[in-house]
Amino acid sequence: MSLSPERLKTLAGCGDTVRLKSAIQELCAEFGKVRSIDIMTMTEAEKRRALCFLRLESEAQERRLMTTLGASRLGEDLLVIVDLVN
C-alpha cells in the first residue's frame, strides 16, 4: 500500500468531476462501499482544487480511510482535498 500523498496524486489528473468521482469510488473501494460523494471545485491563487465530501457505509470504514489517506472529518462527511493538474 503506497503512502497517502502518492495515492491522492493519482486523482490529480482527473479533468472533470465525473472522472474524479469515479476515481474516488475506485480508490475508496478497499475501505468499503461509498454511500455518497459531493465534489466542489475551486481555484485559489491559480491553483485548482477539488473538495471531495464523502460517506462510506460504516464509521469503522471511514476511520480506516481517514488513517490511510489522511482524510479529515467535516461535520458528518469525510473531506479529501485533491490538487488538480491544470
Q: Can you give keywords for this protein?
A:
86 residues; alpha+beta; Alpha-Beta Plaits; 4 strands; 36% strand
Q: What is the radius of gyration computed over CA atoms, rounded to a whole number of angstroms?
A: 12 Å
SSE pattern: HHEEHEE
Number of strands: 4
Instruction: Estimate the strand proportion.
Output: 35-45%
Terminal residue distance: 27 Å
CATH topology: Alpha-Beta Plaits
Assign a percent range to the helix content: 25-40%
Q: What structural class do helix, strand and pairing data support?
A: alpha+beta
Q: Number of DSSP helices?
A: 3
Strand order of the largest sheet: 1-2-4-3
User: What's the rounded overall pLDDT mean?
Assistant: 87
Low-confidence segments, given as residue ranges, are none
Total domain units: 1
- How would the global form be characterised? globular
What is the CATH class designation? Alpha Beta
CATH hierarchy: architecture:
2-Layer Sandwich
Largest β sheet strand count, sense and barrel closure: 4 strands, antiparallel
